[in-house]
Amino acid sequence: MAAILPPELIGWPGWLWITAAGGLLAAGAAVGGVWRTRGSTAVPAAWWGVAAGLALAAESGARGAGLLQTPAATACVRLVVVGLGMCPAMSLLGAKRPQHQVWQLIVATLAVVLSMPALSAGLVRPGSVPDVHLLERCFLMVLVVVGWMNFVGTGRRLAATAIAVGQWLLAGPFLPGVDTDLAYHQGFAIRSAVVDPLGAWLVAAGALAALGTTRAGAVSGDRLSVDRAFQALRETLGAAWTLRIIERFDSVATARKWPCRLRFAGLETDGDPPNTDWQRDARRTLKALLRRFVTEAWLVRHGWPTDPVRQPGRPEGEGGLRALLDSPLEGV
Predict the structure, then answer these.
(1) DSSP symbol at 328
(2) In a domain? residue 143
(3) Fewer CB in a 10 Å sphere around the end CB: N or C, the chain?
């Protein structure tokens, strides 16, 4: 990569401020994500994104101001930044009420554990780059891939891909098969001038793209009108929890003999059955599943239909409540 830029531009300190600007832009997009995901269990993941973006901006800004002048010190701080960057994807894996709040302690512990080699290098071996174990290197790669796979099947696939590639560039020296010492000594200038700015701005571009409104697919089952909210949840939490909701809903639908099945794009009905009493029960079952991840206000904001007033003489427990009590909702 040395041929990409002339020597005078490789040493230009302005590249550090460009990287810092990318981190600030990513943090700002994550703040927008906090607002966009309000009322859902994805809010903590957005806050982790804010922290990661600010940490990257602070690291690059400190280098630009001359506070981090050695490759070893830069490598230690970068490993902390990389650890924070893995937290949003990890946070989404535990985004189910009510455990999602306690799960954030596990996410914070993950960030600390990933940063331990940096602390060890700073206290025990001053002047040396962090000695990252192969298991941690592999785990970092797995976290990047898991975060990408969670959204590659959704409308935010391009945003997820940009973020994953950016994370891979920023975490490159700590990934499997890379000599960290070599990357932060012989390749220090190239990394500062090319790799870090590109990685930071890819993450920022992906974060901004994720804020864009995703066009909903064809809405199936107009009588139920739940596709819009379901698709919004899919775009918010990703594929992992969406597939789990599909599995639970379909098991209840099979047990109750409802002529519908939940798919990744929304609800599908089997023909046009004359008896539509099951629709209210199906809506309530799906709503109970979604409420594990979102609030009532979130559902209303994303177009959840208002249940019709119960007709007099119909026992409430015959359909909806019995279906809910008989379904394995606790396993979601």
Answers:
(1) -
(2) yes
(3) N
Domain finish residue from 211, 244, 276:
211
* Strand, coil or helix: 226: coil
Which two structure tokens, joined as six digits, stand for 79?
């490993």
Q: What pLDDT, on the 0 to 100 scale, is given for residue 248?
A: 95
3-class DSSP state for residue 267? Answer: strand
The helix/strand/coil state of 41 is coil
Give the type of residue at 196.
D
CB 81 within 8 A of CB 56: yes
Distances (CA, A) of 105 to 90, 167, 201, 330: 11, 23, 29, 22
Statement to judge: residues 207 and 231 lie in one domain: no
Stretches where the chain sits below pLDDT 50 are 1-3, 8, 214-223, 309, 312-329
- Residue 23: inside a domain: yes
How confident is the prediction for the chain on average, in pLDDT?
Answer: 84
* Residue 153 and residue 240 in one domain: no
Element (H, E) at 143: helix 134-152
188 and 278 share one domain: no
Q: What is the pLDDT of residue 332?
A: 62
Domain of residue 283: give its range.
227-331
Residues 206 and 241 reside in one and the same domain: no
pLDDT number for residue 30: 95
End position of a domain, from candidates 165, 183, 211: 211
Q: Are residues 25 and 153 in the same domain?
A: yes
How far is Cα of residue 159 from the mean position of the Cα atoms in its chain? Answer: 11
What region does 313 belong to: left with phi over 0, alpha with psi -120 to 50, or beta? left
217 part of a folded domain: no
**For residue 96, what pLDDT is reported?**
92
In a domain, 237, yes or no: yes
Q: What per-residue confidence (pLDDT) applies to 152? A: 93
Q: Which of 163, 137, 278, 136 is nearest to 270 (CA)?
A: 278
For 79, 80, 183, 276, the CA distances from 116, given in Å and listed in that order, are 9, 8, 20, 59
203 lies in the same domain as 235: no
